[in-house]
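User: Please predict structures.

Assistant: First:
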Amino acid sequence: MTNIVITGCSTGIGLEVASYLKERFVRVYPTARSQKDVDMLIALGFCDAMLLDVTKPDTIQSVIDRVLDIDNKIDVWFNNAGYGQVSAIEDLPTDILRKQFETNVFGMHECTRKIVPIMRKQGYGRIIQHSSVLGLISLFGRGAYNASKYAIEGLTDTLRLELDGTKIYPILLNTGPISSNFRKTAVKSLKDNIDIEGSIFRDRYIRTVNGTIKKVPFNEEPISVAKIVHKIILTKKPKRRYYITKATYLLGYLKRLLSTKCLDMLLVRVG
């Protein structure tokens, strides 16, 4: 039976992917960064749920050791954990940018560098990196998140070259807008970490906090991601990159088609 380790399964995409795969006879090891969320997963029937905080290397190693002890292999590792910090660049404290990278980039990197030697030893494996449409284009007020996803793109593109000739496949997921608690968490990070009242963008931030910012088009449900992950598991030679949601296809195409000036004019309106 194929197995998969998934980070960030407390809600949204991670939880949906875990549930979808479990129903299709994939052995799922869902993880979450708090014991409360691990207990929730166990209550939902995920008896192999484990504690994993990507910013704490010892918890990553503990999960790897346990999975290997049970199955003696790790077929697929899905680096899904992450969050979005909202803020204009000029309002973004460096320590908050660093915090964004600790989870979205450095945590992902720590998981990846620990799993690659295992997959080299077993001779195969798939590492799914959860990027974003914002790893392809940038939007106003998403600088920290944009930068973290651009970093994931660069690391994964390089890793792919370094694993050329092996049966280990690093795979990028460029998801667009997906229904989840992601936006709720992003609003909380804005309120907690940014001086809203002291910013020239105060009114815009307040609209974001109050939920009056215009709705994102082409929104899809988390099952869209779950179906792609399942496809990656079933495919003999998966693609290097998967676009998820019409927004990703549209913006990815426009980035190739338009000049930087024209694309900026469009993205200012979108953001």
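Second:
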Amino acid sequence: MAKKRNYVNNKDLLAALIAYRESVAEAEEGGDKKPQVPDYIGKCIMMIAQRLATRPNFSGYMYKEEMISDGIENCLQYIHNFNPEKSQNPFAYFTQIIWYAFLRRISKEKKQMYIKFKASQRQMFDSETFDDSTGTMVGSVLPDYISEFIDDFETKNRLAKEKNKAKQQEQQEQDEK
């Protein structure tokens, strides 16, 4: 059976990161600006982000490009935190950064969707009219998936707030002891 080739060579990426860290240190000593991240490192980060976006966890989202962009941006923002003395695996380091960038983007997009749906729901309630012949309110009905999304989002939000409140109370009790 043929050996599967990796799309990012971890050893080469590690060597490139070590060289980049050395050039950053030299620039700081000389009082110069930070050097630009080498193309090889940038391409590796981009390949990791693009490949991670194809996983089933993330493949169905419409805003995949924004997720990838956030992941790349976060990697470049925190590239200086990679310490080759602690870890020899930059692939895992960048994958983890991108993973959490994707989760943050999904969370932001869900919040935006909630705001849009909630506004639609309010507009629907405002446009309801009273039918004198039947004695009932008449108006358009939101699709079930929108109502379910709103209810689910509000429930998750409420539970998260309750969990945070319980953690704060627990921390406060420990501090008092």
